[in-house]
Amino acid sequence: MKTVTGILALLALVSCKDTPQAQDEDLTLNEEVHWTYTGENGPEHWAELEKRSHCAGELQSPVNIIDYHTQEDPDLLPLDLHYYGEVRIHEVTNNGHSIQYNFEPGDYISLGDVRYDLKQIHFHEAAEHTLNGIRYPLEMHMVHVNAQNEIAVFAIMAMEGEPSEPFTFLENYLPVDPGETKIIDECFDLNLNLPQNRDYYTYRGSLTTPPCTEGVRWIVFKEPITVSLQQVKELQRLMPLNNYRGEQPLNGRVVKVYESPYN
After folding, report:
1. Any catalytic annotation for residue 97?
2. 35 near 219, Cβ under 8 Å?
3. N or C terminus of the chain with fewer C-beta within 10 Å?
4. PANTHER family this protein is in (predicted)?
């Protein structure tokens, strides 16, 4: 599975407790299939490359989210985040499709009564989801997994503007060549890498890379963060150009929206 009204807060690096090393986990890369984003192994051929995948399914991602077609849901709640500023980034890897940062255990989110642990973040440029037909330069995915191996992903758009100190910190560990992994073992406060406005869209979809597994809970932030043009170009230099999957049909799905009454 291969990133404004609020101003992005500065990265806070705080003293943090040592936590056990997380198992290496790449939820977006299937080593047996040499899929790409262009040509004969591009997205239109993914279902042929991996016949047991969901890539030809009816509940695929990403999608174009149009405000006029979204539905307010009074049962949706503010996001329940348990990002304590003590989690360590274990390593960064270039899996050939994206730059991915793998986290040690610690930070998690709660959806209802279910805990989803943060596993990794990675990037797509340009963005995969479009908002009212607009494709942002960058989209960051924060991948969380629960005890039943069900997946919930935060999608955060990034637009060009003020530099992002959290991105500067992350890019300090670049470059990494395709297939290369670097140990980081530093703590990272995820709260300060999120938009100040936590309103969001949500729908049921899939991973956006083979095997395109369905049943993924997507939470797409309405407000983008800002990054500098130089920061976007640095990721572009290191990742495959245009490492995004095109828009998938909703096929009757309804995108729901949470908007805080206090905004």
Report:
1. yes
2. no
3. C
4. CARBONIC ANHYDRASE
